[in-house]
Amino acid sequence: MTAIKNGNQSAFSELYERFNLRLYYYFFRMLGNDKEVANDFLQDIFLKIINKPELFKPGNKFTSWIFTVAHNMCKNEYRNREVRKIVCKDENPEQFLSNENSYEETRNKENLISELFAEIENLEEDQKAILLLKYKENFSLKEISEILELPVGTIKSRLYYARTALTKKMADKELL
Fold this sequence. Notes:
The chain is mostly helical.
């Protein structure tokens, strides 16, 4: 970030390469699986980095900081929307699967992943954010606490209830 502050374009390119897919996925999942909205938010977050690199405080962990910014952007978007739930649009679970499985196993995984994503979409935004940050981005509870600006105990509680709700919904559909 110091190099970016000094106008180093290769530093920005490196940062973009490291984080664009992770941030895109986060925006995609948090904002109703809308590719265009996810791309818009991805562009906005990198414009913020270009235009205001001084917002990052040296000594802080960059990953936690950038996901805090991303989460706050999502919260602002939720406030601006009249309808907070959006039906899952384009889902392509194949992009998350290994090609080494048999056709039948792949189909079963596709169905399970599609159902799982559909159920995640039906969770509250806070639960959805915690699940994505924990299991997709592999953040620790402490890092999630910093990103969401909540106590670790609250994160643990919400994670427990999110997992419980998701497990119950999947069991009700006899998928688990």
